[in-house]
């Protein structure tokens, strides 16, 4: 949440061996829990500590402690595609923007690899189960509104996209505060295991003498941060009394993992209590100004809602029969690196991002400029992908900020994973665990059109981007040029046609009628309504 946290006083002696009293509150990082979970069954370990400890031993031969996709595929006995997906996903949710994996060009990812400690934490949280939706009291409100085209609909897509809007179902989804409390509880339960994977044994001592170095402690930043959003940039070790006053020119003295464990448990308990108090205040009619829960209205052109969570996740929901555009100023403190699109039906999505994950969507077209393979998960039907098809004046600047390379666009390489999401806490029928979701087809080049973003904001300075930065594939470019040529020839024929004035008016009227019919049949009429509304 975004409330500022005032430190409490501490009476502990910093030189004492006792566990210091916590002085700040702790928040889970939402990114790995929201964008870092992959529906790959081989990543769900029966005994994650034992499996990952063995993995650490197998992969720690490298002095740099970094792991490439080939070594990872061999160690986990998974495909090279899945190993590369793990590295790509990890790079999108890492806490450190300076990590070489984050800044690596796509062709260098395999050689640079992931830090082993971040990789182990990433693999450990694949056991995380998302919070279940609240019970829906009105079963009639969620009666099915479209044909059930999948044998798995009753289990996997509890609600169709239209149901989600018509039943105002956002109210029944977990709130951000609920999710934070759930993630804190998960960290509380698994903290000992997580610390054991980051700790090192003292030579000649037993398991109770595991120690944690300052560098190992800072890798907890993958999962947690202290205080409010503004303190995320502070190294994690500076928030801990164990390392806060360490001489930067001298290696910090390691501490007992058990001491760190006890200290963090106290902070997590205090943080859970804080979240509970805020929830209680909200339920009693005193909503926090930072609460970002969204109550969806009925489907209508004006029903689109957007909100931003404390951790810079930005939500756009309820877009129906309209177009929705956000400016850079609307996405404060955010960088669009990993986009998740879920529960959409008959929607056109245009996005430039490092990666995109498409979940439970039907009859949608995605115009993509992405450096990583589009990930398709869940119950999807009749999806199409196409090259990126627009630009605006600051696009190049924004792409540079988040490290998107316009020379690499993997829009046409969708990676379809399982229909079942092992992280959804739901029970599923036997025999469908390994079922693969329906992939996406490439849009027919003759159906490809450019999308023009109007200059709605007068006075905006003209920046460098004057064209689509992503080169069009030959088939799409050729089709576009052919259509442009055909249009020019038709316009010339009409101009030179030897028609009387009344016949020209009849022809113009007929063209207008056919064009209007096309606007309605294609759904493009809504774009005109949006422009008129603006």
Automatic annotation (TrEMBL):
Keywords: Cytoplasm, Cytoskeleton. Residues 1-26, 278-304 are annotated as: Disordered. Its main location: cytoplasm. InterPro entries: C-CAP_CF_C-like, CAP/MinC_C, CARP_motif, TBCC1, Tubulin-bd_cofactor_C_dom. It is found in: Cytoplasm, Cytoskeleton, Microtubule organizing center, Centrosome; Cytoplasm, Cytoskeleton, Spindle pole. It holds the Pfam family TBCC. Residues 251-404 form the C-CAP/cofactor C-like domain. It comes from the Eukaryota. Residues 7-23 have a biased composition (Low complexity). Residues 282-292 have a biased composition (Polar residues). Belongs to the TBCC family. This is TBCC domain-containing protein 1.
């Amino acid at each position: 949440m975004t409330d500022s946290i005032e430190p409490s006083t501490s009476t502990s002696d910093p030189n004492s061996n006792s566990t210091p009293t916590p002085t700040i509150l702790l928040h889970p990082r939402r990114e790995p829990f929201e964008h870092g979970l992959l529906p790959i069954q081989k990543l769900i370990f029966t005994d994650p500590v034992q499996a990952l400890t063995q993995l650490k031993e197998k992969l720690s031969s490298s002095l740099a402690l970094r792991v490439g996709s080939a070594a990872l595929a061999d160690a986990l006995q998974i495909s090279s595609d899945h190993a590369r997906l793990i590295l790509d996903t990890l790079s999108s949710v890492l806490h450190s923007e300076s990590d070489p994996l984050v800044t690596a060009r796509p062709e260098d990812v395999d050689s640079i690899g992931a830090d082993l400690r971040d990789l182990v934490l990433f693999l450990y949280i694949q056991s995380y189960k998302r919070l279940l939706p609240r019970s829906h009291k009105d079963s009639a409100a969620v009666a099915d509104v479209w044909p059930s085209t999948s044998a798995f609909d009753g289990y996997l897509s509890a609600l169709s996209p239209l149901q989600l809007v018509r039943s105002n179902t956002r109210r029944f989804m977990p709130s951000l505060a609920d999710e934070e409390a759930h993630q804190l509880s998960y960290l509380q339960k698994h903290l000992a295991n997580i610390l054991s994977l980051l700790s090192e044994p003292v030579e000649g001592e037993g398991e109770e003498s595991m120690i944690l170095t300052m560098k190992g402690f800072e890798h907890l930043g993958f999962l947690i941060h202290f205080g409010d959003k503004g303190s995320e940039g502070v190294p994690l070790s500076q928030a801990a009394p164990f390392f806060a006053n360490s001489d930067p020119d001298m290696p910090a003295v390691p501490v007992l993992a058990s001491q760190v464990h006890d200290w963090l448990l106290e902070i997590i308990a205090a943080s859970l209590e804080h979240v509970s108090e805020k929830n209680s205040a909200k339920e009693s009619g005193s909503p926090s100004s930072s609460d970002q829960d969204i109550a969806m209205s009925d489907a209508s052109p004006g029903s689109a809602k957007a909100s931003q969570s404390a951790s810079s996740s930005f939500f756009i929901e309820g877009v129906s029969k309209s177009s929705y555009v956000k400016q850079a100023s609307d996405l404060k403190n955010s960088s669009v690196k990993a986009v998740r699109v879920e529960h959409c039906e008959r929607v056109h999505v245009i996005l430039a991002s490092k990666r995109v994950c498409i979940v439970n969507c039907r009859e949608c077209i995605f115009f993509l400029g992405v450096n990583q393979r589009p990930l398709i998960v869940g119950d999807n039907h009749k999806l199409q992908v196409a090259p990126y098809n627009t630009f605006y004046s600051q696009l190049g600047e924004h792409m540079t900020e988040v490290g998107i390379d316009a020379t690499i666009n993997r829009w046409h390489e969708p990676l379809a994973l399982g229909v079942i999401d092992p992280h959804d806490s739901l029970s599923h029928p036997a025999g469908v665990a390994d079922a693969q979701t329906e992939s996406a087809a490439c849009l027919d080049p003759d159906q490809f059109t450019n999308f023009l973003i109007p200059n709605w904001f007068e006075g905006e300075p003209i920046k460098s981007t004057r064209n689509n930065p992503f080169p069009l594939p030959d088939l799409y470019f050729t089709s576009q040029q052919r259509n442009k040529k055909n249009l020019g020839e038709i316009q010339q024929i009409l101009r030179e046609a030897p028609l009387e004035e009344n016949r020209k008016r009849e022809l113009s009227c007929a063209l207008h009628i056919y064009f209007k019919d096309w606007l309605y049949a294609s759904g493009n009429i809504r774009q005109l309504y949006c422009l008129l509304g603006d």
